[in-house]
Amino acid sequence: MDGIPVSELDDLFGSVANELRISILRELWDRYGEPVSFTELQSRVGVRDSGQFNYHLNVLVPEFVRKTEEGYVLTHTGKQTIGAAVSGYFSTEDVEVDSVRAGECMFCGEELTARYEGGNVVIDCSACENLITKMPVPPVTVASTPRENLPQVLGKHVLTLAHQLSRGFCTLCHGRVDSTLTVRSDEESVAYRAALDVKFECRACGDRTHLNAGAVVVDHPAVASFLFDSGIDPRETYPWELLPLLDPETTITSEDPLELELTVRTDGGALKLTLDDAANVVAYARR
Ligand SMILES: [Zn+2]
Ligand SMILES: [Zn+2]
């Protein structure tokens, strides 16, 4: 499927592109889901002309605002619009962070640094010059985090996005995504040595993204329990420090359909995983 054509979203964008309509959304938001009557909403927004107020309110119904017997409430899309506005409150230029310590380099063992520039978190090693990861993170996430906690919070954010994708949801629109195991693309977003990565494409908005195979399987209980038994808690470890997972031994066991064997090694032993062409773990065994 090609997704929903963006040209068809004009009406939807137009519906909220008005100060009065935004005030209506904000008033309803402040009531935490409690229905608000027409008269009360009108007086809160401060519009004398009922006809004018009614017109603008109706533009928001039914996508953003729902009319119930008790009054008006925000729909899920209405709430998401507020969320998007909050998320976009800070511009990427307002939020810049340079060089926070972010753990050890998986290639050379020297110290890594994390910085935030142009809307991306960049983690790289100044000693061996390897780019470890570069991922988009909303400025609001960075702005609401004290500097010293930034690497931990970014690690959790990266893991959350990986879980969301590996569980099949688009990180932008929450539509369903299809995953395909693929030969490594040369885009810069993830620069691990793993031979293969996983491509995701959203059926609804068409967004395309990719992660290395190790980051996708970390959500599997066999992997999480193996790491945990080896003394590694993925929630408390920087994802970019999960060397045994992100740089595992990989063997292509079948070309068509593509099938991959991935061995994760820790001091506690080895875990062998078999991935099908959609990056599902189809078999696993501890060694
Ligand atoms: Zn290094
Ligand atoms: Zn999407």
UniProtKB/TrEMBL annotation:
InterPro entries: DUF7347 (IPR055771), DUF7351 (IPR055775), WH-like_DNA-bd_sf (IPR036388), WH_DNA-bd_sf (IPR036390)
Domain (DUF7347) ranges: 10-84
Organism superkingdom: Archaea
Domain called DUF7351: residue spans: 103-281
Pfam families documented for this protein: DUF7347, DUF7351
Protein name as catalogued: ArsR family transcriptional regulator
Source organism of the structure: Halopelagius longus
